[in-house]
Design a protein that fits this description.
heterodimer; A: about 425 residues; alpha+beta; Alpha-Beta Plaits; DNA polymerase, domain 1; Dna Ligase, domain 1; 3 domains; 4-stranded antiparallel sheet; 14 helices; 12 strands; about 40% helix; globular; B: mainly beta; 7-stranded antiparallel sheet; about 70% strand
C-alpha cells in the first residue's frame, strides 16, 4: 500500500506575508490580529484573497468584497498581495520537501504531495515523520503547515484539510474514513462544488458518508460520469500517481483585468484589450507556442459575464495578429453596456518551432515576428514598461496588463 | 525596534561569508555617524518566508559600555539592515 503525505500551508498568502514582515522587523504578527490580504479598493480589485484565523472569527470569507469585510470588523488590517514573495516561499517549501522524499508533486502554489511509500523501513512510521517535517518547516521557514497522511492523494488531501492550523491528520483505513471523513458535509469533498452540492442535496445526500453509501447508478443518472467519480472519491478510491515536476500540459494562456472605472467607449476598451494582448502574446511566445483560438470575455458593471471566441484561420503568436482578432471579437460581442472587467485568452496551442505559412497570411509575417522578438528581448532586459505602444503612452493603462506567469503555479487545481 | 538600511564595510572570508567591520548610520539629528563593530557575539542564518537573511548580533563600545544591536544582510538584495 502506498503512503502519501499532503502538505498544505495554513492561510498561505497571509502567513507568508506575516513571516516576511516579522523578518523585516515588524512587531505585529498579522496571523494574531484580524487581517486579510486583498487588492486595492481604489482600483476596484478589492476582494479578500486570504484571511487570518482571528479574521475568520468575524465571519470574513475568502472572495468577499473588502468593504463587506470591513463592516464585519472595522479594525481589519488589509495588506496588498505580493506574488513574487509567494513564489519565493513556495519554492523554499518545495526545496525542503525535496530533501525529504525523492518524489514530490507541487499541486498548487501552497500545496504539495510527498510520496512516503516504502520509506518507513529506513525513516520510521509516517506519523512521527510528518510531525518532524512539520516542525522543521516551522523552524526553518517560519510558517505552519498541515500534513495529511493517506493511502492515496485524495485521502491525504482530505486528511490535511480536517482541522487547522499546524496539525497532522491521518485517513489510512476504512475505519478512519468512516469516523473522520464520512460525517463531513458533502461539499467538503474534492470536486464537489456548488452545482453538484445542489443536485446531491436534491436526492437527500448531505454528508460524504451518504454519498459513499449511495447507489452509483443513481449518481450516474443524476450527475453523469462526474457522479461515478465523486462516488469513488467518497469511498476513498483514487489511484493517480504522485508525478514529479510540474509538467501539466498548458492548455491556454489568458490575462484579465478589472478596470478602475466603467468603460463606456470603444476607444478605451481597445486600449485595455491591447494592453492585455501584449502580455498574453508575450507569454505565448515565451512558452514557444502558437495559438489557434482567441477569446475575449467581458464583465459588465452589473457583473454579467459573457465571452466570444473564434478559431483562427492560421495559428499565430504575433501580437498584432492576435490583437486584430481580439478587436473584431470585441466588436461582434459587446452589446454596449458599461464594462467593468475585460479578459483576453488564447488556446489550442501547437509548437512554434514549425508553422505553416498560408497564402492568405497577412503581409510581412516574418518581419512582424522579428519585431515581436526584438521587443521581447528589450523587455526582458530593461523591464516591461520600457517600450510601449504610442496609444498607451498616456499612462492611463500599463504597457502590459495582467500577471506574468503566476498561474504557472495555480492557486487552485482540479486534477489530482 | 527601529530599522535602517545602512552603508557597511565588511570582510568576506574564503567561504564567501561576510563579516561587518563598520557602518554608517543617520542619527535622529540627521548626522552621519560611523560606528565600528567591536564584537560579533553571535551570527546565524534565517530562511523565513524563503528569504535568506544573515543575522549578526553585534556590540560596539559607546562611552566605555558595550551596546548590543543587530545587523542583518539580505542575500537576495545584498542590503544591510541595522536594527536597534
Amino acid at each position: 500500500m502506498r503512503t502519501i503525505m499532503h502538505v498544505d500551508v495554513n492561510s498561505a498568502f497571509l502567513s507568508w506575508q506575516a513571516v516576511y514582515n516579522l523578518q523585516k522587523g515588524d512587531k505585529v504578527d498579522l496571523r494574531q490580529i484580524p487581517s486579510v490580504v486583498g487588492g486595492s479598493q481604489a482600483d476596484r480589485h478589492g476582494i479578500v484573497l486570504a484571511k487570518s484565523t482571528p479574521a475568520k472569527k468575524y465571519g470574513i470569507n475568502t472572495g468577499e468584497v473588502l468593504w463587506q469585510a470591513r463592516q464585519k470588523c472595522p479594525d481589519l488590517v488589509v495588506v496588498p498581495p505580493d506574488y513574487e514573495l509567494y513564489i519565493k516561499c513556495s519554492d523554499a517549501l518545495a526545496e525542503i520537501l525535496k530533501e525529504h522524499s525523492p518524489l514530490i508533486q507541487r499541486f498548487s502554489i501552497d500545496e504539495a504531495f510527498l510520496d512516503y511509500s516504502g520509506m518507513s523501513e529506513n525513516f520510521g512510521p509516517p506519523v512521527p515523520y510528518a510531525y518532524a517535517l512539520k516542525e522543521k518547516i516551522k523552524k526553518t521557514l517560519g510558517f505552519t503547515v498541515n500534513i495529511g497522511i493517506g493511502p492515496n492523494k485524495l485521502l491525504a488531501k482530505i486528511a490535511g484539510d480536517l482541522k487547522k492550523p499546524d496539525m497532522v491528520h491521518t485517513l489510512l483505513n476504512q475505519k478512519e474514513m468512516a469516523e473522520k471523513m464520512w460525517p463531513l458535509p458533502v461539499q467538503d469533498l474534492f470536486m464537489v462544488g456548488r452545482a453538484s452540492k445542489k443536485k446531491l442535496n436534491d436526492i437527500a445526500v448531505y454528508t460524504i458518508g451518504d454519498l459513499a453509501k449511495c447507489e452509483p447508478e443513481i449518481l450516474k443518472y443524476k450527475l453523469k460520469s462526474h457522479g461515478i467519480l465523486i462516488w469513488q472519491y467518497a469511498n476513498g478510491l483514487e489511484e493517480s500517481p504522485v508525478h514529479e515536476g510540474y509538467n501539466l500540459i498548458m492548455k491556454g494562456i489568458g490575462n484579465s483585468t478589472t478596470i478602475r472605472f466603467d468603460v463606456i467607449d470603444r476607444k478605451t476598451a481597445y486600449k485595455v484589450l491591447l494592453s492585455l494582448t501584449e502580455s498574453v502574446a508575450y507569454r505565448l511566445r515565451r512558452v514557444q507556442a502558437v495559438c489557434g483560438v482567441v477569446s475575449v470575455s467581458i464583465r459588465t458593471s452589473e457583473l454579467n459575464m459573457y465571452s466570444h471566441q473564434r478559431k483562427l484561420f492560421n495559428r499565430t503568436d504575433v501580437t498584432n495578429e492576435i490583437y486584430k482578432n481580439v478587436v473584431e471579437l470585441f466588436n461582434e460581442g459587446w452589446q454596449g453596456e458599461p464594462i467593468r472587467h475585460l479578459g483576453v485568452r488564447v488556446t489550442d496551442f501547437s509548437s512554434s518551432e514549425f508553422t505553416q505559412f498560408s497564402i492568405f497570411d497577412t503581409k510581412d509575417i516574418v518581419k512582424k515576428q522579428a519585431l515581436d522578438s526584438a521587443i521581447d528581448r528589450i523587455r526582458n532586459r530593461y523591464g516591461n514598461s520600457i517600450i510601449k505602444r504610442a496609444v498607451l503612452a498616456d499612462d492611463q493603462f500599463h504597457a502590459m496588463t495582467g500577471g506574468m506567469g503566476a498561474d504557472e503555479y495555480p492557486v487552485m487545481s482540479t486534477i489530482l | 525596534m527601529g530599522r535602517q538600511i545602512v552603508k557597511v564595510r565588511a570582510d568576506f572570508d574564503v567561504d564567501g561569508n561576510p563579516f561587518p567591520l563598520k557602518f554608517k548610520i543617520v542619527t535622529e539629528e540627521k548626522n552621519l555617524v560611523t560606528v565600528r563593530v567591536d564584537r560579533i557575539t553571535k551570527s546565524d542564518t534565517n530562511f523565513y518566508a524563503g528569504n535568506k537573511m544573515l543575522v549578526y548580533h553585534c556590540e560596539s563600545i559607546e562611552d566605555g559600555v558595550f551596546k548590543p544591536y543587530e545587523l542583518r544582510y539580505e542575500v537576495d538584495t545584498c542590503k544591510w539592515f541595522f536594527y536597534y
